[in-house]
Amino acid sequence: MRLRDRVDLTSLVAGAAISVFGVLILLQEEGTIDLEAGWFFAVLAAATGLVLLASGVGARRG
Amino acid sequence: MNESPSTKRLLRSRDDRILAGVAGGIASYLDIDPTLVRVGFVAAVLFGGLGLAAYLVLAVVTPNDDGSGAPAADDRPSAWLVVLAVLAVLVLLPGPFWGAFDWWGGGWWWGGSLWLALLIGGAVWLYATLRNRNRRPPTEPAAEAPRQPTPEDDQPAADDSTAPTRRLDDTSSQGPAARDGWSRLLRGVAIAVLVVAAACAAMSIAAASAWATATGHGAIVAGVVIAIGVALVAASLIGESRWRWLIVPALVLALPAGAVAAGDVSFDGGIGERDHRPTSEAELPVDGYSLGVGQMTVDLRGLEWPRDRSVELRTDMGLGQTVVSVPSRVCVEADVNASVGHVVVRGREGSGVDAEVTEGPPPGRAPRLVLDSEIDAGEIVVTDRPPEVFTGDDRGFDDGGWHDRSDDSDPDEQRRQERACAE
Question: Which of A11, B140, B277, B369 would give a disulfide with B236, using CB separation of 3.0 to 4.6 Å?
């Protein structure tokens, strides 16, 4: 079985989104970036959309 | 005593295991989704480490499943597991009963975690018991042989001396239906308790995450969130979809931490009430006054005000109320900001998100306060009235009902400020 077929797409995208989110929080806490509340909710909405999209694609792929 | 083959035993699952198979075994025993059990363990770990101790103890005392539903032969727990379990019991479990642990949460937190764990465990047990009972096929009617009609059946009911007994038997035949109703009701209650307990756990974890971030420990929360994300990615690459439940605790941790970090909310400086009444400029701290959560009053009415220069003051608060009182003859040059909340500076007010009032430099040579005041959420008041008017400690103080008005702008104080600045 190829890796592409074996990968659980929803977990992959959700994990990547959560990791990115964690990194953003870390950078914000360290003062490397200055993310405002508006950006925070925009990133959150984009991540939610990506996870839903991946879930849909994964379901289609079976 | 021989064990009947139908007796169910609690075993560590061989096929459905992530660590030691405890959660999978419990799920199989109770016939519930193993994800629920894992979420329960993780939630309990975050509540004082109870879940960790329970897991380790169960890993030691529960035998492995040999694959056929029976305990595996020659199955002994490893020495390190026993040591870990003993340590966990000795270190973690006494907390709720001693109640005086100040590390890792404090006594109330420990006690709360114990009761929450008992509540969740009780609800799971009740739910599983009732569900198993409902699934059991009715045996009583099947055990009874069909009764053959007899000549006595044709007799009038009044002559039948066994009629009352039969009626009792009849009600017993309706018993399962009544029991089903009760079971359904109790199962609903158990589910409701579980939902409430899960919501309480989630809210507590979210509050702890927000608190940790606001007190400068956001990097730890971020590290946990990143670790969960990496674990999810790793699981996805080996085709494991069972770890998807980790998304929930990751979000519960990440959302409040992200909101607090993005909002620049900081609770550094402690909690409580602070009442500062400096009498000379030298008593004013160079870095200003700060407080994490609570109420802070800075009463400058007793200060000796120099005429030849400005007095500079900075205040910083996370959540609560800051009240700065100055003499009415002092001109206030202020840059006052509330991320969320309400500010009043010498009779001029602002409210909402990023509420701000700025008073420019005065034209005259009046005693002057240059104030830089910030609050993350709450209220900042700069006034020539006593602080008690705004802090709620003003019983008996007569201000003519001014502070009871819905509109906090005060033209009289604005005029006093203009007069002081024009001097």
Answer: A11
| B379 min Cα distance to partner chain A (Å) | 20
Judge contact between B296 and B274, C-beta under 8 A. yes
From chain B, the residues in CB contact with A33 under 8 A are: none
Residues of chain A with pLDDT under 50: none
Beta-carbon contacts of B338 under 8 Å, excluding residues fewer than 6 positions away, are B350, B354, B355, B356, B374, B375, B376, B377, B378, B379, B380
Number of residues assigned to chain B: 423
The terminus-to-terminus CA distance of chain A in angstroms comes to: 14
A12, A54 in Cβ contact below 8 A? yes
The number of angstroms, rounded, from the C-alpha of A41 to the middle of its chain's C-alpha atoms is 13
Tell me which amino acid residue B12 is. R
State pTM to two decimals.
0.51
Contacts of B223 in chain A (CB under 8 A): 22, 26
Per-residue pLDDT tens over the stretch B184-193: 666 677 777 7
DSSP B12: B
**In this structure, what token pair is assigned to residue B287?**
């870095």
Q: Which residues lie closer than 8 Å to B55 by C-beta, 6 or more apart?
A: B19, B20, B22, B23, B41, B45
Q: What is the DSSP letter of B377?
A: E
Q: pLDDT per residue over B66-117, tens digit each?
A: 888 888 877 777 777 777 777 776 666 555 444 434 444 444 444 455 656 6
Cα separation of B56 and B324, whole Å?
55
Nearest to B338 by CA among B379, B298, B391: B379
Report the alpha-carbon angle B277-B296-B321, nearest 5: 145
> With 50 as the cut, is the pLDDT of residue B375 above it?
yes
Angle CA B118–B120–B123, to nearest 5: 105
- Best of A8, A9, A35, A36 to disrupt the B interface (most B CBs within 10 Å) is A8
Q: Among positive and negative, which fits the CA dihedral B382, B384, B389, B394?
A: positive
| Alpha carbon of B245: minimum distance to chain A alpha carbons (Å) | 9
Q: How far apart are CA B263 and CA B273, in angstroms?
A: 24
- Distance of CA B260 to CAs B31, B123, B217, B316, Å? 40, 34, 11, 16
First-to-last alpha carbon distance for chain B, in angstroms, is 101
